[in-house]
Amino acid sequence: PHDVAALIPIIAGAGGIVTTWEGAPAERGGRIVAVAERIEGAAREIDASGLLVMPGGIDSHVHLAQPTFGGPKMSDDFLTGTRAAIAGGTTTVLPFAMQPRGAGLRAVVQEYHQEADGKAYCDYGFHLIITNPSPSVLGQELPALVGDGYTSFKVFMTYDDMVLNDRELLEVFECARGCRALVMVHAEGYDAIKFMTERLERAGKTAPYYHGVSRPEIVEREAAHRAISHAELTDVPIMIVHVSGREAMEQIRWAQNRGMKVYGETCPQYIALTADDMKGLNMDESGGKYVCSPPPRDHASQEAIWQGLTAGVFQTFSSDHCPFMDGVDGKRSPKAKTSFKWVPNGIPGVETRMAVLWGLGVAQGRIGMNEFVALTSTNHAKMYGLYPKKGSIAPGFDADIVLWDPARKETIRQALMHGACDYTPYEGLAVTGWPVMTILKGKPVCEEGRILGAPGDGAFLKRGISPYASK
Ligand code: URP
Ligand code: ZN
Ligand code: ZN
Ligand code: ZN
């Protein structure tokens, strides 16, 4: 029944994968129709000999075009951010639609759709960020949006513009339980950070390096434990995102060992960077390039994170891509020079996420390639209601594929990047293993760093309820 002209077999050895693509009827287009030992008679073949054929990456924690309330502008929008994603082997991103304080949710979601519409090079969905848990938001808007495919949302335990107090967290958790949304928690304690920040500032310790000192692991551990306690009280699963080291990780493991549905996410910065990077050159402002929250820790923390990755404490490895320019419009603004607290938090990473995990993980024998696929793709799909559409190579799944060269040696550098940010925090990192072709719904969209796709190739994904969000 398939029009042979619409098939692409990706040949690895004699067999391969057949996908439908352009020209196929819309409802069937872009899917995998067969994975077979022998494939014959197709119009086009992609030679994948010597390469690994893996599910396209899914990055479930990305910030694009998010306003920063008086701070510098985020450097990637949906066009440049998703262009970077496909260049790095990622075919689906889940950015955030952030509710400014006092605003309704539905209008915010519409604004982000307008931002993204026609611009994305890869598929995308939205998590919501809840900053205003009013009765109407929790009673009506949120449940309705969950029903419309926005099935996860994030809450913050720090940041002036976003922090929720304990009472609000409990209300939101209870709401999530009712509508089976998956809650993502940014676990860092607001008051402790503020106390530490003011103490450092009084002592004249204002360089970017002190960003890390102002929010040590204790602050993250305390908030993680508090979030877990609230989750237990309200009987709801939670996902603690961007875990930086052993302390918070042990809280998650503790909860998991007690049978709680507490999940964990970690990120490239916690295996590839340390607090020392924030020292820059002699404690100057160049350290701002590594300022993110939670901050990178030390080498012992990196080892702890690897243990968590292999032991199953963490389900997902996401970028937390949150790019700001390393210039006066970003990390080095005049205000940022007065205190680390004005250095915008966040670093780019959507393009380098998979290469960093492969290079430091698989190529160095710390994790296997099946774990790599789970951590960069499959688990994200399962966790966030995209399975069985995304996250695997099998008939019926979207034909989102990355051809990966496990032998390719590359040095990560800004000149290779495809986003709008002016630096990569992984400059100079030598890795083995690199994406050589990214295929989105059957269409090659990037080959050897050359973008073949177009804005609008990516579509909005209405997500299902997360099976992990249900008790
Ligand atoms: O520093 C970071 N990670 N900024 C992004 C916002 C967040 O908390 O994920
Ligand atoms: Zn609800
Ligand atoms: Zn966060
Ligand atoms: Zn984030």
Describe the protein in words.
The chain has helices at residues 78-87, 105-116, 135-147, 166-179, 190-202, 209-214, 217-234, 246-257, 269-272, 299-311, 353-362, 369-383; strands at residues 7-12, 15-20, 32-36, 46-47, 52-55, 57-62, 90-98, 123-124, 127-129, 152-156, 182-186, 238-240, 262-266, 316-317, 401-411, 430-440, 443-447, 450-451. By secondary structure, the protein is an alpha/beta fold. The longest helix is centred in the middle third of the chain and has 18 residues, at 217-234. The chain is built from 12 helices and 18 strands. Helix 3 (135-147) packs parallel to helix 4, helix 4 crosses helix 7 and helix 7 runs parallel beside helix 8. The model is unreliable at 1-6 and 21-26 (pLDDT under 50). Strands 6, 7, 8, 9, 10, 11, 12, 13 and 14 form a 9-stranded parallel sheet that branches. A 5-stranded antiparallel sheet has the order 5-15-16-17-18. A 4-stranded mixed sheet has the order 3-2-1-4, with no helix packed on it. One zinc ion binds at residues 138, 142-143, 175-176, 178-179.
Structural class: alpha/beta
Q: In sequence order, what are the helices and strands, one letter per element? A: EEEEEEHEHEEHEHEHHHEHEHHEHHEEEE
Number of helices: 12
Q: Helix coverage percent of residues?
A: 25-40%
The share of residues in extended strands comes to: 15-25%
Shape: globular
End-to-end separation in angstroms reads 42 Å
For the largest beta-sheet, the strand count, sense and barrel status come to: 9 strands, parallel
Oligomer: single chain
In angstroms, what is the radius of gyration?
21 Å
Provide the list of bound ligands, each named once.
N-(aminocarbonyl)-beta-alanine, zinc ion
What is the residue-averaged pLDDT?
A: 93
**Number of strand elements:** 18
